[in-house]
Amino acid sequence: MAIKPFEFIANAVRAKEIVTVLARYGFADLLQKMDLPPRLMSALGKMAPERRSQWERLRIVMEELGPTFIKFGQLLSMRPDVVPEALIKELRKLQERVPPVSFDQIRPILEEGIGQDLRAVFSEFDEKAVAGASMAQVHRARLASTGEAVAVKVQRPGLQKVIDADFDILIWFARQAHERIDDLRPLNLPEVIEAMRESLERELDFRREARSLSYFSQRNAYPEEVCSPKIFEDYCGRRVVVMEWIEGRRLESFEPGTPEARKLSKVGSRSMFHQIMIDGYFHADPHAGNIRVLADGRLCFLDWGMTGQLTQRMRYGLVDLFQAFVKADAEQVSRIAMHLADTGKSIDRRRMERDVNVAIREHYNPDTGEGDVGRAILRLLYVFGRNGIDLARDYSLMAKAILCVEETGTTLDEGFNLKDEFGPVLKKLILNRRNPKNVAAEIRDSFFMGIDQLQAIPEETLRILKKIEKDNLKVNLQHRGLEELDDTISDASNKITLGIIIGCLLVGSSLIVTSNTPPIVFGFPILGIVGYVLSLLLGLYVAFDILRGRPK
After folding, report:
1. What is each CA distance from 278 to 226, 241, 313, 490, 544, in whole angstroms?
2. Which residues contact 159 (CB under 8 A, 6 or more apart)?
3. Residue 221: phi, psi to the nearest 5?
4. More confident residue, 223 or 544
5. Cα–chain center distance at 181
6. Taking the alpha carbons of 124, 130, 131, 135 in that order, is the dihedral positive or negative?
7. How many CB atoms lie within 10 A of CB 66?
8. Average pLDDT over residues 543-551
9. If we measure between CA atoms, which residue out of 172, 162, 177, 161 comes closest to residue 194?
10. 323 Cβ partners below 8 Å, 6+ apart?
11. Is residue 540 classed as helix, strand or coil in its secondary structure?
């Protein structure tokens, strides 16, 4: 679907900037496969060849295009079903070189979010940001009521408008790539970008992070070993969140292989696997930068803006998937993935089983139990996506979280084995799943649900028959492959509209000239001359647009 001429004007400058940057870093060939408007094609030009890898260049493009694209890259790194591991590795290097916003710009957002004057809430407030990112910045403060030190996270001003404009352009590029590049079609990029936009919209609502922190504090299975910052809900809003100020050591400060470092790797992995497999609600980005070790030895998980959620059915499916994976049973892994996705698409089972087998063997040795389990899971999700199996987004978040656990654990302890760590949690979930009481309850619930559905069949059938009887039955049909026709009709109607405007200008100007309507300059009516000039300019524009336009 091409950008409509009048819709394009609002984002024309930004779109040209994006195309220029992409072309500069060697992506002109990809852009030429898309139906870019002529005004964008002129931005491609001839660029010097790049010696860096395509993934490194793509990461640099995102950094150069600013906050929205940096955040987009970070979200994309959470989709191992869409992007290969090499790109995920690059996207995790994204650096946010975003200077903090001045306090004068931040203050109105703070007071609106908190609902009070800052002086009534805080006895101290550091106007200089202590941390900044593409979406928000953090200030240190002290509550007037309790004297507690707090971290105040506030959203950057004007963010929504920038995000809307950039994502409109991203979605257009995704549609073009989906329609014109066969290799990318199974990934359904437009749907992926839309999902990321929704994810970012949720992340921009800081109340969700506040709820996540509260939920984890209530359900934390190991409060003596793991914690999260205390949240002050009375001062939290959509664009502001106030939480406990955390002073602690970074994981990098611990010497790998020491008893303390090995204990931290076990404590962190045990908490994460309990969150994923038992609670079904987990921190989706537990890399080393989001973890601190407090003075009392507890691990503190920071930045709960990105969380994942797995239902009981999804967790049981993961158990089956892990068991098949450990056995390196490619056929069973493929079957379980198709069941979890519940897809109605036609899948090449033989090709998928071959890809799954290669993915497992590349990263994991089933005979010895050694290998990079996290990377193998990432690779499997990518294989599923390439074969048209669209698993729920939370599976991708789970895979990213497991990779973070494996990488952090290996950094602290070279002998860290992911399989050994999640083994006890899997056994616990398996025992819970096979518990006779739970099995009986599941059978009972399925039976009564089936009865309810059977009872609803006559009523639904009668409703359809009544619609047929009253000639009120509607069938929605979706036409595919008509996007080009829609673009052609739109383009033609715009040219016809301009032609009518040019004709009206010519007729009106001729009447003014004939009647010598003042004001008159050098013996000619000035309004008539202006009309003729406008007609000439518009006519030249239409002729130029027709001549340089490519045949459809």
Report:
1. 16, 28, 12, 54, 65
2. 67, 135, 204
3. -80, -20
4. 223
5. 21
6. positive
7. 17
8. 65
9. 172
10. 426
11. helix
